[in-house]
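ok, trying the design again with the full structure, not the truncated one.
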């Protein structure tokens, strides 16, 4: 993820079964899982999952803390 003033830019590293990779800016999935938002790419295969990495709220709080530390 990349923080830009007023927004987050989400970069995804995608690869296929043949091992080819692609770095892409793409929106995240907006489906809710229990009370959290899915943290995978929009249109991802399989079920939604919020158990990896920060929640959007945790990430926003972390970025605010880092901005405050750097002034």
């Amino acid at each position: 993820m990349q923080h830009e003033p007023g927004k987050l830019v989400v970069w995804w590293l995608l690869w296929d079964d043949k091992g080819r990779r692609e770095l892409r800016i793409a929106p995240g999935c907006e489906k809710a899982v229990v009370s959290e938002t899915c943290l995978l790419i929009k249109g991802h295969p399989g079920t939604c999952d919020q158990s990896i990495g920060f929640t959007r709220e945790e990430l926003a709080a972390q970025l605010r803390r880092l901005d405050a530390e750097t002034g």
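Keeping the full-length input from now on. Strands lie at 2-4, 7-9, 11-15, 21-25, 32-33, 36-37.
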